[in-house]
Amino acid sequence: MNVWGKAQREGSQDVILGRYERGIRVPRVVYPDRGPHRDTVYFSIFGPTVIGTNEAIHHILDTRGVTITMPEARRNFEDDVTPEAARPLRERLAAFRARHLGRPLPQVRKPAFGRLGDILKPLRQVVRRVRPDREDAFLAFAADLERERIQEKADTLESEILRVLDGVRERVEEGLLPVRLVTQALNEERPEKDRVSDQKVGKRLRSLGFEKGQRTAEGATIKWDDEKLVRAMEAYGLRDSTHSAHSTSSTAPALDHDQADAECVECDESGQHTEGNGAHTPRPAHESDSGPNELASEPRHACYACGGTRFWRSTYSPWVCARCHPPGNRDLVAEWLEVGPNGEAEHQCEVLKPYRKPTMEKPTTAAGAALDA
Residue ranges per domain, the chain? Predict the structure, then answer.
């Protein structure tokens, strides 16, 4: 089962990616008849999650958890796996929860840097509470995970760029390094079809933290910074780090949300449309005249906020971005629309069912916001 593929089809990536952090909420359009701002309900999605799949998971999902590859079994297991067989374990876990209810877990340092440390810290707290004699083994496990992730980063384009930067220090003039020099060094041994452009290299350099410099006769440049280069090389496993996750605590990383969660100043200044909480939609052509039975004009470009190209509408609302404003249920969708690169629109009609208002005033669980399979 391809879990990530199904999540993408159903528009529920944000639910899966946010499960590991307490306090995260995701928006779903549940009451389209109530109009802007009042049509959206926010659901708390925090909770322990185990995903079983026989497909390789997406690299973004891989950063939100601990991946354990199960080996092929070499013997037959005669006992069937049933809920009844797990009852003793559930009873013991319930007793453990009751015994420690209201008692805070021991304070520990993060066993790794970055998001991996955020994920593993609660596990280390539990290990210290339950089996403190196994904490050293757990720390060795965390170190192996961190080493594996660094090795994976060592095979990326960013890692190649950092190696090139380390070898062209002498080409820096007046604190500036031409991006073209980096591109030429990267493309020296690459076949024609695999060569990269100056624009692509420039974007990757900025993502690594290097600032854009003044344009010279050799084209675009970056401002040289030895300290940033050393830090980046340590992060990609190209140099031994002088810091330890056990001696310094790392700050919690910012989540890579697919939608904004705050007001967008640029959109306010440019007059682009926003629904008030950072979730943007294309500005309808006749927004002030649009009513329950009057549809606004179709979008002809990607969403201003997230760049998404898929939109949907109900009988109560104009076209909205499916990523910024995902529908709470497929029964709410009258029609889907996919915007092409040249502004062409491809309609994907749904069989519109009579809309029934939810019986609950406000759903209280994340399950109520999941899309029907």
Answer: 87-153, 157-235
Which of 9, 80, 43 lies closest to 368, judged by CA? 43
Quote the radius of gyration of the chain (alpha carbons, Å): 25
Contact in structure between 338 and 303 (CB atoms under 8 Å): no
Question: CATH class for domain 157-235?
Answer: mainly alpha
Q: Give the long-range contacts of residues 165-172, CB within 8 A, separation 24 or more.
A: 165/229, 166/229, 166/233, 166/238, 169/224, 172/224
- Return the amino acid letter for 372: D
What angle (nearest 5°) sits at the alpha carbon of residue 259, between those of residues 311 and 18? 115
Neighbour tally for 77: CB within 10 Å? 7
pLDDT one-digit tens code per residue, 304-347 = 777 788 888 876 667 888 888 888 777 778 888 888 776 666 66
pLDDT in tens, 255-303: 333 333 333 333 333 344 444 333 444 443 333 333 333 335 778 788 8
Please state, in angstroms and rounded to a whole number, the distance separating the CA atoms of residues 39 and 36: 6
Q: What is the DSSP letter of 165?
A: H
CA-based nearest residue to 116, from 153, 144, 142? 142
Q: Measured between alpha carbons, how far is 151 from 234 in angstroms, rounded to an integer? A: 12
